[in-house]
Amino acid sequence: MPSHSLETILKNLGEEPLNEAPALRARLVPELKRYLDEGRAEAEKVLLEKQSGLACARTLSAQMDGLVRAVHNAVVGHLYPADNPSMGERLAVVATGGYGRGTLAPGSDVDLLFLLPYKQTAWSESVVEAMLYVLWDLKLKVGHATRSVEDCIREGMADMTIRTSLLESRFLFGDRELYNTLVGRFDREIIATSAPDFVDAKLKERDARVAKAGASRYLVEPNVKDGKGGLRDLNTLFWISKYVYRVREPEELVKAGLFTPEEFRLFARCEEFLWRVRCHLHFATGRAEERLTFDMQRVIAERIGFTGRGGLSAVERFMKAYFRIAKDVGDLTAIVCAELEARQAKRRPVLDRMLGRLRRRRGGALVGDDFIIDNNRINVRTEHAFEHDPVNLIRLFWLADRHNLPVHPDAKRLATRSLSLIGPHLRNDPEANKLFLDILTSKNAPEVVLRLMNEAGVLGRFIPDFGRIVSMMQFNMYHHYTVDEHLIRSIGVLTEIEGGQLENEHPLADQIFASIRNRRALYVAVFLHDIAKGRPQDHSVAGAVIARKLGPRFGLSAAETDAVAWLIEHHLLMSNTAQSRDLSDPATIKSFADVVQTMERLKLLLVLTIADIRAVGPGVWTGWKGQLLRNLYHETEVMLGGGTADLARSERVRLAQEQLRAELPDWRQDMFEAYIARHSPAYWLKTDEARRAKQARFVQEADKAGRTVTTAYETDQFRGVTEFTVLSPDHPRLLAIVTGACAAAGGNIVDAQIFTTTDGMALDTIVLSRAFDRDEDELRRAERVASAIERALKGEVKIADLVDGKRPAKERAKAFQVPPEVVIDNTLSNRQTVIEVSGLDRPGLLYDLTTALGKLNLNIASAHIVTFGEKAVDVFYVTDLTGTKVTHSGRQATIRRTLLDVFQGEEREPSPRRSA
User: Where in the numbering of this chain does the HD domain appear (predicted)?
Assistant: First the structure.
């Protein structure tokens, strides 16, 4: 406890009154500040030693109780003594809001109500003002109100926030009778007559709050206080329960019949865990931080004492525990909502809510032998439905999907309490597996039903391998959801594609879906593609092994099981190839086609890849990625149809030139021949017809105007990119200058294609991700980027200075560790060496890498930029200055060492990468 007690502090003020408020504060505040600091240190010690969040919060609340009382006593004793107080000088000091619950987080507000008998007097006004000045001098965040009993009742009737605050009021000191009058009138005049309105308002308030904080409880940076499954949800449950059941303490909810003893223990466990996390978060950040950001997750995991185990790091184990608690809070919410609905319908108390209501509802519309349609939801007919036939644990959700009806919360709750019935016998039951496969491959709403099964605990128990990834977080900035939520969302995307709901966004997938023969295999593969996450081995390979085990159990044929296993093993292949390889290089297509082998696999892999990327999180899918996938699909389709990408290379060049000639009817023949002679065969093979025509006119206009450095740009809303064409005298550091200018001007490069004409000019295409939805906004930004590129290429500015000006002071990516890696491969392209660099992303990394490659005297033919959250994967197709591959082992070692050295700069002030 603090070394100086509050009694000692008051005694040290002296017996002589300090008649001036400034003098009192000057004596009192430093002592109270020391008391607060020592008290908080003591509370943090309790938290770290006992790992009890509630003990910490109650300790802080008790300390604050004493402090507020001490401030009051000092003010009344020295400034405004009331030896013989009149009726108008009665005052009660009341804690409200969160402080009223007797719990206080280190950074929380202190909410106080100064309660008066009827109206404020000069004495009470002076006392309240003087108290507040002391509390403010202590840097406390004080929420306060001065009201009479009548004011409280009137404003409580009109304002739901005030009503909630009064609901949690707690007497601190002063006139107890005054406080009792308020409580009695509040109970009789407000609570007794407005329960339905209060419940409705609080549930709507919760929906709005959750929508603002992030609708899913599985967001990987959750808000501990206001997010779905957070403390505020528990608060809302208790507010509603207090209001409807007229209880004062949470323990009374068992006696009222709302919770079973086990469920109340779950409530208490959730509350304790969330308070523990919140208190640690406030202490660790030194402020009222409620969001569990990536950089704090490691810190909190360590403070709580989590360690790595079973293939999961300490932070991943901590976040898995957090998300399980969030799920439990959701279950408790469903229980309360179901009971409130029943209470409203029956208008009578229920002693044993579960058994009593199940027995009364046997008269509902019968669905089979064990289920009824109860108030437009699927419910069990008796409490013995699952004991009678454990297959009913799967049939319940199958019926919900078949009849397109939700599962009643009581049935879901009974299913959760019956999970022990799901063992090897049920898992291998042919009927149970057939029902599950029907759910998974349903054309109704499999995503919704699978989520219900997951929330009830049935899904993880029925498929233990799925149970291992329930609530599992992937500690990175790329994945927005837990693994189980990602898989379920992937099924939702797949259903939308099949239903034609994403035709405009995925025209190719929509077009080919009807021709897919292995529909069941596709759904199972999408559902299982990340099921082996969190294991020491590669999750794609381990997932394929799991699929070979589960396929026959689900009732898939041997061919279907093989298809599922192949898809899972290669589920990242198409995405990685499309985003990080040169799709105009025949070797890329051949390598990809050699793995895919058949058109059916190509179709399946395309659709799975789209579902996977779209389910990662908001903003991850872009039209640019879609275009890359379509390009890869069409190029591979040609090869799988019997053609080869290198067939008649000279003929393809000739056809490309003839197509361009047709696009330029106004050009003289000699001018056209001179132009095509400036380009190498690679240019004609790698650029599409529309781009060739635009670039021909762009170069001609530059020649006429005598411009050796110039740019052009255009937006593409469907692909979500803006393309820049850059013309400049070529030199090894050209791409480094362009990438640096883009970074300094706020451009996020996703692709780059570089060509050098026979007369020494570089004609480059730089693709930036779109920053604005409206074309006029995007074009203004493009103009700024183009101007920055031209100024840098003309030497009007020093690019290093531009980049240095964008160096951030601090990055969230510091929370992550991505070991840098450089892979040099001469088999991936027939003409260039492919250098793949991966590591921790940072603003300006692309500039740093291209600068390093330029200093190594390497010509960059194309660059392909991929970012997976905090991880950057940059791929460069390069040659040496003679135009040949880099084959010498010593030269390769130098390249590898130089590029790895770029990442050592992360220990110093980071240099800007792609600014967004």
Answer: 483-605
